[in-house]
Write a structure and sequence with these properties.
- This protein has nine helices and eight strands.
- The protein is of the alpha/beta class.
- The strands form two sheets. A six-stranded mixed β-sheet has the order 2-3-1-4-5-6, with helices on both faces.
- Strand 7 and strand 8 form a beta hairpin.
- It is rod-shaped.
- The structure holds guanosine-5'-diphosphate and magnesium ion.
């Protein structure tokens, strides 16, 4: 099998961006070769990273083409690991990440792709990034600068990338635009002391993302558990309320019954309840006590949260009192 051989002096470039942005076409322009397959439709062609090598401007160049960030046929996990593999393909890593954006098609979808790259490559990647616009000839005489200045999103992005950008017309086979790009890459490399973006940087960004995701999930689980506990406590306090209400209701009902009982037919009327015979007064007392228990229980159940508040207030009040006293005691001890 043919094995790629490249030296330390080989310029390593990775093309990233949205499907249809012109990554493969730009790779071909750079290498002045039909190295990568260019797709007319917006269907993603590159499912796996591909690398091609060539000699450009007397320089050994290695170009890696990557899958489109918005490829819906790939799971996020697969996409992330494939892009990681692309970084590894040019170990120790690329000198330049070319973030490819098609002029006049900087849609919400493309913006989402740019956001994906910023998040997944990490802020550290920006110092190795050059924004590469494609479709330059579609600007109809408008300057690249003017186009950028009219779009706050692009302006922000270019600024983040150290004001590094370049524009390609991939239908233009002259080498001037490639020479200009190389000069921008060389300037960037000088600033970076020929350093490169590494797979470790990519991995640490992903470890960070995974850690944040884990923390987010743990926080959510904790919140869910606390809500569940709160619900259980509320039911418990409703129960406490029901019992307290029933007791209070029984007592109140009994008092009312004993007062009102004699007025129901006098003490001589005997009421038969089950096997027991009782006077109307006793029956009235028992009846209103039972009614009182039911009504009190219901009222207490509804007032469970209020009772809980009352309990918490009393509990906190007592605690404050105890703390105040001990503070007072400490103060006194100290002063003595
Ligand atoms: N007019 C014009 N079309 C371009 C340019 N760059 C790419 N394209 C077209 O855009 C389409 C997608 O290009 P491709 O390189 O396959 O995009 P990729 O999915 O990012 O690899 C193809 O039809 C290309 O011919 C350009 O600079 N000008
Ligand atoms: Mg492609």
């Amino acid at each position: 099998m043919f094995k790629y051989v490249y030296t330390d002096s080989t310029l390593r470039i990775v093309l990233v961006g949205h499907t249809g942005a012109g990554k493969s076409a730009s790779g071909n322009t750079i290498l002045a070769d039909k190295a990568f397959k260019v797709e007319c439709s917006s269907n993603a062609v590159t499912k796996f990273g591909e690398k091609k090598q060539g000699k450009v401007e007397n320089k050994d160049v290695l170009v890696i083409d990557t899958p489109g960030i918005n490829d819906t046929e790939m799971t996020q996990e697969k996409l992330k690991s494939e892009i990681g593999r692309c970084i590894e393909m040019c170990a120790p890593g690329p000198h330049a990440l070319l973030l490819v954006i098609r002029f006049n098609r900087f849609t919400m979808e493309q913006q989402a792709a740019v956001k994906w790259i910023q998040e997944n490559f990490g802020e550290g990647a920006l110092k190795y990034t050059i924004v590469l616009f494609t479709g330059k000839e579609e600007l109809d005489g408008k300057s690249v600068e003017k186009f950028i200045s009219e779009n706050p999103c692009l302006q922000k992005l270019v600024k983040k990338c150290g004001d590094r950008y370049h524009a390609f017309n991939n239908n233009d086979i002259s080498s001037l635009q490639v020479r200009e790009l190389f000069s921008k890459i060389e300037n960037m490399m000088k600033i970076n002391h020929a350093d490169c973006y590494t797979k470790e940087m990519y991995k640490s960004t992903h470890d960070l993302i995974a850690r944040r995701e884990k923390e987010r999930k743990e926080k959510k689980n904790k919140r869910d558990r606390e809500t569940e506990k709160e619900k259980e406590k509320a039911v418990l306090w409703k129960g406490v309320g029901a019992v307290a209400g029933a007791l209070a209701g029984t007592a109140t009902g009994a008092v009312i019954g004993s007062v009102a009982g004699p007025y129901f037919g006098g003490a001589t009327v005997v009421v038969q309840v089950g096997a027991k015979a009782m006077t109307a007064a006793t029956a009235a007392t028992a009846g209103s006590a039972t009614l009182g228990a039911g009504a009190g229980g219901l009222a207490g159940y509804g007032r469970g949260p209020k009772i809980r508040q009352l309990y918490n207030g009393l509990h906190n009040g007592v605690l404050n009192l105890v703390n105040d006293n001990s503070a007072e005691k400490e103060k006194t001890d100290y002063e003595m």
